[in-house]
Amino acid sequence: MAISELELPTGVIAHSLASADQQAEKLADCVARALQFALEIDDTASLVVSGGRSPVPFLEALSRRELDWRKVQVSLADERWVPPAHPDSNEGLVRRHLLQNQAASAQFIGLYHPAASLEEAAQHADQALAALKQPIDVLVLGMGDDGHTASLFPGSPNLARALEPEGEARCLPMLAPSVPHQRITLTYPVLAAAHLQCLAIQGAAKLDTLNRALGATDEEMPVKAFLHSPLEIYWCP
Q1: Residue 198 belongs to what H/E stretch?
Q2: Mind listing the domains of the chain with CATH numbers?
């Protein structure tokens, strides 16, 4: 199956790239242009990215793009509730692979906060996000084989609340089926308000997941909630 064979909703743009390196460079160019445009009309631009292994080439490519990074705020779509030094930390990933080179001077707003409970940590993260320019200028999401995006996992107790279009919380505690289980995620209304929304996926299995999501409900496969304009999908084999 090719991404061109999917019956995507009107207004969703799909980019098919030949390799992970081409995907990283193409996505980095798109994100950099959008951030530059945001800086031309405002004093600050905001970028929200996702963690995991596959975004590393994109983050490194973006770190080499020339921008006035001092005026760019960077945050995360979700976070594992582990300290930044932990190998599973999304903050640690972004600090190692994005906040370097040209992007070393960007402003980072993290979601991890030490607290007595995951719920309290999420409250601290919600307060910290008050400093993030919103609506977000650029959002880059990934997708799991179960159809989750950010830490919006099927079956998580807080999923329905996190998907509420008019919900007031900026982020919520979530439980993942994989270790580490405790997560913090930005909510749907915060993510879906982003001016530019990108979904980066790789491989035939992810294409099959995306195809299944098109026929699912938001709670069955939460990525479905984002499959509408203005979304750009970047896929490579």
Answers
A1: strand 196-202
A2: 12-236 (3.40.50.1360)
